Amino acid sequence: MKQVIVVRMDVGMGKGKLAAQVAHASLSAYEDTDSRTRNAWKGGGQKKVVVKANSERELFELADVAERKGLPNAIVRDAGHTQLDPGTVTALAVGPGEDDLVDQVTGDLSLL
Length: 112
What we know:
The chain is of the alpha+beta class. Helix content is 42%, strand content 24%. It has a single domain (2-106), classed as Bit1 (3-Layer(aba) Sandwich), CATH 3.40.1490. The protein has helices at residues 15-31, 35-43, 56-68, 99-106, and strands spanning 2-8, 48-53, 73-77, 89-97. Its EC number is 3.1.1.29. The natural substrate for this enzyme may be peptidyl-tRNAs which drop off the ribosome during protein synthesis. Belongs to the PTH2 family.
């Protein structure tokens, strides 16, 4: 079991902002996960992988694929309090889910 968080690299987030967006995405997708998957993921160490995307469009396309595969997922939009304009799409979490199923969505992306 794992979760992959996809971060936009074209919006120029600082390291702290990026870390916060990853956390928002992870928690949001986790909240939409069924209890069996939650327990399996938590019991297995809550594996997370962070990868890069180059556009908002790419995040939405990946979210569509995750939806079709029945994977929990969450798009994050920034509140606009610091570095970004309100509503800026920053990250997508896919999973938690079975490794091979999550890889069908995010397996071609480069590590952050």
